[in-house]
């Protein structure tokens, strides 16, 4: 019918009163009888208009196909595989072109946003170069991260498929301060090259109260993605100090707007929802058109972390109750309680059940011992000792810490209970006199031993040769 209508309109435009179509065979689009004394088809694409036979006095007119040319075409091709049409001449009449519509391949605009994620073993190998210890936590994170982005890419590459719908697997990192929780999340974001937003949960409040609401997390992702909302929706949100959101006993007549209220506000975002972007934030995504006012959080990976101080007591209490009467209470106390944490323990701690249910993956980080702290000082790519060595090397000074001095620094961090976070403050205190005197003093080498770290005695200083000769 489409071709029939196209022919009818084209013929009518050429010379309507003198043209008529007697018979039309729709199955082959063959014109059985055409009474046309002045029909001319100029510029028509013969390859797109197959004609089986013509019955008439011929085709004539300015720029038309001659009857002999048409007969030759029919005799050589039988109307099935027509050659290219002859060149156009003369004024053109409406062309009889039947458009070919091809179905475009299925493609999601997010398919070009994220590359194939590294394999879990590759992720762990990368983490080993930056974070010391925590082997179990690294494996848990690597698998969760890999599976999340594999699911995401599979959904993007087959947007119209009726495949099984996958749910998100957000991650909870539990461990003492200074065990590498924040560093693990940052290193993962750098490896994947995806937008990364980090926020302290203690600054969040319910919407309408003084403080930041949960929408600020999305704004930080947009800023990290340069305003590209498609990239931002595939990013990572790291929420630290989440243990501070535990329910608190609020005074009568007041609301816990910074604890349970924030947990409630985060529920939809953790599960996946279309969160509206407020008017003040729409400028970050190019103006605030209707298509860009909602942020889809179903593709976000949330990594939550907290020290959960006292959670080990909750776990130990549960384990001792279970072991009453079997004489294993002492063994339960010796067990690493946090490795046995369950969702029930987290709920007893003060996290609401709905919140825990949306964070199914829990990884426990162990406190670093003295040996691990020494390795943290020296082995990672951006190790603290390497940072100070390069800083003094710019001034021509070689910095050396003996093994005893490194262990002394680690022991002080253990006594302070600050883990790896306390290493920098100790190093700053120990190196302060040298960093004050070294510029312009002609130092060539400074060596710290255990006494210099523990008692604060002066390190061994070797002067440069030029300085020695000038003094002599």
From TrEMBL:
TM region positions: none
Domain AAA+ ATPase: 167-389
Cellular component, GO, one term: mitochondrial matrix
Record SUPFAM superfamilies: P-loop containing nucleoside triphosphate hydrolases (SSF52540)
Top-level taxon of the source organism: Eukaryota
Molecular functions (GO terms): ATP binding; ATP hydrolysis activity; ATP-dependent protein folding chaperone; peptidase activity; unfolded protein binding
Keywords: ATP-binding, Hydrolase, Nucleotide-binding, Protease
Gene3D superfamilies per the UniProt record, alphabetical: 1.10.8.60, P-loop containing nucleotide triphosphate hydrolases
Residue intervals of the Clp ATPase C-terminal domain: 368-463
Biological process terms in GO annotation: protein import into mitochondrial matrix; protein refolding; proteolysis involved in protein catabolic process
PANTHER family reported for this sequence: ATP-DEPENDENT CLP PROTEASE ATP-BINDING SUBUNIT CLPX-LIKE, MITOCHONDRIAL, ATP-DEPENDENT CLP PROTEASE ATP-BINDING SUBUNIT CLPX-LIKE, MITOCHONDRIAL-RELATED
NCBIfam families: clpX, PRK05342.1
Protein name, as recorded: ATP-dependent Clp protease ATP-binding subunit ClpX
């Amino acid at each position: 019918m489409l071709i029939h209508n196209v022919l009818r309109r084209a013929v009518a435009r050429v010379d309507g009163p003198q043209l008529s179509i007697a018979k039309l065979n729709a199955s082959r689009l063959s014109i059985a009888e055409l009474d046309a004394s002045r029909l001319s088809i100029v510029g028509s694409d013969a390859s797109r208009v197959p004609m089986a036979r013509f019955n008439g006095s011929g085709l004539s007119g300015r720029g038309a196909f001659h009857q002999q040319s048409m007969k030759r075409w029919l005799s050589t091709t039988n109307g099935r595989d027509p050659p290219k049409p002859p060149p156009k001449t003369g004024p053109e009449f409406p062309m009889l072109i039947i458009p070919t519509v091809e179905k475009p391949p299925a493609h999601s605009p997010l398919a070009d946003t994220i590359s194939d994620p590294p394999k879990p073993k590759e992720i762990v190998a990368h983490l080993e170069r930056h974070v010391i210890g925590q082997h179990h936590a690294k494996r848990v994170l690597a698998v969760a991260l890999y599976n999340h982005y594999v699911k995401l890419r599979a959904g993007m590459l087959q947007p119209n498929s009726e495949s099984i719908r996958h749910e998100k697997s957000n991650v909870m990192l539990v461990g003492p301060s200074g065990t590498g929780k924040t560093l693990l999340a940052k290193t993962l974001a750098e490896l994947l090259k995806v937008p990364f937003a980090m926020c302290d949960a203690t600054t969040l409040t319910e919407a309408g109260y003084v403080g930041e609401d949960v929408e600020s997390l999305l704004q930080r992702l947009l800023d990290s993605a340069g305003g590209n909302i498609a990239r931002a929706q595939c990013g990572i949100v790291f929420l630290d100090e989440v243990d501070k959101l535990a329910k608190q006993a609020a005074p009568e007549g007041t609301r816990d707007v910074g604890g349970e209220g924030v947990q409630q506000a985060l529920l939809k975002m953790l599960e996946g929802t279309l969160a509206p972007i407020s008017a003040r934030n729409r400028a970050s995504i190019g103006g605030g058109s209707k298509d860009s006012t909602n942020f889809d959080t179903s593709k976000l990976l949330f990594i939550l972390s907290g020290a959960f101080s006292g959670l080990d007591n909750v776990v130990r209490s549960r384990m001792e109750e279970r072991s009453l009467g079997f004489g294993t209470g002492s063994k339960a106390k010796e067990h690493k309680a946090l490795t046995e944490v369950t969702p029930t323990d987290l709920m007893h701690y003060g996290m609401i059940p709905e919140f825990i249910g949306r964070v199914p993956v829990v990884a426990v980080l162990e406190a670093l011992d003295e040996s691990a702290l020494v390795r943290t000082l020296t082995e990672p790519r951006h190790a603290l000792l390497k940072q100070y060595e390069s800083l003094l090397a710019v001034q021509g000074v070689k910095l050396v810490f003996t093994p005893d001095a490194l262990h002394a620094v680690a022991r002080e961090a253990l006594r302070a209970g600050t883990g790896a976070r306390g290493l920098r403050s100790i190093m700053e205190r120990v190196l302060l006199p040298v960093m004050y005197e070294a510029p312009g003093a002609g130092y060539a080498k400074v060596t710290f031993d255990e006494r210099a770290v523990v008692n604060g005695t002066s390190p061994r200083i070797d002067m440069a040769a030029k300085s020695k000769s000038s003094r002599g």
